[in-house]
């Protein structure tokens, strides 16, 4: 079976040119599903912390199994890599590099992917995925670019005050669909901005999102703020948007 090209798993790496980022480029990884055909268009998952999603989240391995063994329709995954030393600066709304990163993501990276791969170009077929600050910046991107994004997968989102300010300033969010999870052991997690109760942050974010009309699935489960927990959640999370019908948000 592994020699059959229909079952092949392909991952490409690209350096995306950028006139927005000071370094002039950003690396992405692109997973192509088994049986990939260039003339077919596919839903796409855009992952913050792309290297971690592939290496620790094993998202390509999950996707391969779900497509081959559980008869899911195929989809493409794009992982956007990040320099960990600049991660907070890029992902937090009050970070110095946040305007550069979010503009690059929406205005350069997504158009590049759509011009080089047969991904579908509607908000309903683009899923933003992230862990911790990556989950929060995914929501932030959906707020800033409503014509591009309306579906978010958040694993233990690090919803700092700057994100709440964005939410409070937003109008109706009834277009948004979110799948959110947090671990019950995440009540005192140390970060570069202090120690946070991620359970409370997520509960507060859910409350505000619901007040604004967003449609969401939220769960609190036994788990810590680490990939060992998040990796286990990915099949269920992806199923909400990409699994066989009936999907959670259809």
From TrEMBL:
SUPFAM superfamilies: alpha/beta-Hydrolases. InterPro entries: AB_hydrolase_fold, Esterase-like, Mycobacterial_A85_antigen. Gene3D superfamilies: alpha/beta hydrolase (3.40.50.1820). Transmembrane segments: none annotated. This is Esterase family protein. It comes from Cohnella endophytica.
């Amino acid at each position: 079976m592994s020699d059959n090209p229909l079952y092949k798993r392909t991952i490409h790496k690209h350096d995306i040119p950028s006139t927005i980022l000071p370094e002039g480029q950003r690396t992405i990884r692109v997973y192509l599903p088994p049986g990939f055909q260039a003339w077919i268009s596919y839903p796409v998952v855009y992952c913050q912390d792309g290297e971690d999603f592939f290496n620790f989240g094993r998202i390509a391995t999950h996707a391969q199994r779900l497509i081959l063994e559980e008869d899911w329709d195929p989809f493409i995954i794009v992982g956007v890599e990040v320099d960990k030393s600049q991660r907070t600066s890029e992902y937090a709304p009050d970070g110095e590099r946040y305007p550069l990163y979010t503009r690059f993501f929406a205005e350069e990276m997504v158009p590049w992917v759509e011009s080089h791969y047969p991904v579908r170009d509607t908000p309903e077929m683009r899923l933003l995925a992230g862990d911790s600050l990556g989950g929060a910046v995914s929501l932030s991107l959906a707020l800033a670019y409503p014509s591009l994004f309306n579906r978010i997968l958040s694993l233990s989102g690090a919803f700092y005050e700057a994100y709440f300010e964005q939410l409070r300033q937003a109008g109706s969010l009834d277009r948004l669909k979110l799948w959110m999870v947090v671990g019950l052991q995440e009540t005192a997690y140390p970060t570069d901005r202090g120690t946070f109760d991620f359970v409370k942050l997520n509960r507060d974010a859910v409350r505000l999102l619901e007040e604004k009309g967003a449609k969401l699935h939220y769960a609190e489960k036994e788990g810590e703020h680490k990939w060992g927990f998040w990796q286990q959640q990915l099949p269920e999370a992806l199923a909400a948007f990409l699994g066989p019908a009936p999907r959670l948000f259809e």
